[in-house]
Amino acid sequence: MTDNNIEEKRPGFFGRLWNWLKTPVGAISLGFLVVICFVAGILFWGGFHWAMEMTNNEEFCVSCHEMRDNVYAEYQGTVHQNNSSGVRATCPDCHVPKAWGPKVIRKIQATRELYGHFVTGVVDTPEKFDEHRLYLATRVWTAMKKTDSRECRNCHKFEFMDFTEQENRAAQNHQKALDEGKTCIDCHQGVAHELPEGYLEAYKEVAAEIEGK
Amino acid sequence: MRKQAFTSALAATALFALAGFAIAQTVGGPVQSLRGADVDEQVNVPDNFTQEKKRFTRNYRQQPPLIPHSVDQYQVDLKANRCLSCHDWTTAGERNAPTLSMTHYLDRDGNQLDRVAGTRWFCTQCHVPQADAPALVDNTFQASSGN
């Protein structure tokens, strides 16, 4: 007990820090540190977000000729680019998740696409692109099917769909899809891009594999 | 004075009751639901008639049937045929769509094929979406026989 009393005479590290903070020099230093961290936090986080958004728009996507000459060219005139209301879905609206976590994961995956662009040039001619089209489409279908067409449903939600406003055929099939738990991509493949040969068979394989699991 | 007020109030109430009863009588009968069906009866939403759902009658025997739905932006090219994703014999059942005529699975030499014959691949060469609209250009077409 007496030993402890002696130790209490000289405070521990945190005790000494606390005492120092109560001096004017300490308080001002701490205040400065807090303010600088706060400002730096805003700058760095804002900068990170800004930089990520710079890579998340149509202009950035079509800055690569692979995108500009193939998929972007095909997208011209489709219903997501040209329609009565003038609302447009750009590349990242469909191909990059909106939620932060999945978005960052997708952005990290996209670094592999940089490797394909700068190093291997895997789809750098229209012919090569067409050769890989089924593979590329299959990857997108797989992602859509796994996430229950999450990116479609950022705008298109069954809850707010007025079937009575739809063409009979569309209304019937949407009701059927709702009842059977189908997802958008199960029927709507190739809404903005050209379909490759054998697309339906390939999609059925994708669906069977995911539904089977 | 007080008695008079009481009588007036009573008269007014009686008048209101009588008027209400009269209105109820003119509207008449038991309470009806807005849709004219029992509450436990399923009333489906009426069909949407913005587009002709029924099949148009053929104008002549050899006329290719008309398409009773929109085919805007359907890809029909060398690589893919969107129509066949519902109308091919392999998918028509699950998609509840009419199957192609079996003549479309015969090649030019009359051989039976499992896939649509190349000569029949481009659907919109013969089949067009139907619309009850005036002809865009005059024509003097005569069917080969009958009416």
UniProtKB/TrEMBL annotation, chain A:
Organism of this sequence: Ruegeria marisrubri
Domain of life assignment: Bacteria
Processing and modification events after translation: Binds 4 heme groups per subunit.
Residues where heme 3 binds: C152, C155, H156
Amino-acid positions noted as binding heme 2 in the UniProt annotation, renumbered to this chain: C91, C94, H95, H193
Subcellular location: Cell membrane
Membrane topology type: Single-pass membrane protein
Span of domain NapC/NirT cytochrome c N-terminal: 28-197
Residues bound to heme 4: C184, C187, H188
Binding site for heme 1: C61, C64, M67, E113
Keyword Nucleotide-binding: no
InterPro entries: Cytochrome_c-type_ET (IPR051174), Multihaem_cyt_sf (IPR036280), NapC/NirT/NrfH (IPR024717), NapC/NirT_cyt_c_N (IPR005126), NapC/NirT_cytc_sf (IPR038266)
The protein's name in its UniProt record: Cytochrome c-type protein
